[in-house]
From TrEMBL:
Keyword entries, A-Z: Signal
Species in which this protein is naturally found: Mesorhizobium sangaii
Signal peptide: 1-19
Identification of the protein by name: Methyl coenzyme M reductase subunit C
Keyword Signal in record: yes
């Protein structure tokens, strides 16, 4: 019974991972990248690093904070597109409260 339950859970995780669309932003204009994210709500953008040749970079980009998981906030990010080197988009990140705390309370002025 445990094996069946585990298999069902793994199948659901795999199905969820396949459900999100993947795109190469360097083959689309910045406006098309932004409209694709708006249409799907969340997409994975994959492109090559400009600093390290051959290194693929990818992340999940979202339309709004409702596509972030609990505890994450929407933050601005930039990806390359066919018509610009820095197309503004949004991604989900966990806030770094610890860094803010250290800066605020342990900074020696």
């Amino acid at each position: 019974m445990k094996t069946i339950l585990l298999a069902a859970c793994l199948t659901l995780v795999a199905a969820e991972a396949q459900a999100i669309s993947r795109y190469d932003p360097t083959r689309m204009s910045c406006g098309r990248v932004q409209s694709t994210i708006a249409r799907h709500g969340a997409v994975i953008l994959r492109y090559q690093s400009t600093r390290v040749p051959g290194l693929p970079l990818y992340d999940r980009y979202v339309q709004s904070e409702q596509f972030c998981t609990m505890g994450e906030v929407r933050t601005r990010a930039y990806v390359p597109s066919a018509d610009t080197k820095s197309c503004p988009v949004y991604t989900c990140k966990r806030p770094d409260y610890d860094r803010h705390f250290r800066r605020r309370f342990f900074h020696n002025d």
